[in-house]
Amino acid sequence: MELVKNAVLESLPRKKYAVIKYALDHPDETVLMNTAEFANKLDVDPVTVIKACQEIGLKGFHELKKKLKPNVQQMKSGGAIDRFLNEFEVNTSKEQAIRNSLSRDAEMLSKTIEKISYDKIIAASEAIIASRNTYIIGLGYIGNVANYLQSLLRSHIPHVQAVTEYNGMLFDYMGLFSKEDLVMAIGFDKCQNQTIKALKRAKERGATTIALTDSEYSPLCRYSKYKLMVYTAPDYFLSPLIGAFSICNAMLHCVVELTRPQSTKRVLNYNKLLREEKVYYQG
Question: Is the peptide bond before 46 cis (omega within 30 degrees of 0)?
Answer without folding.
Answer: no
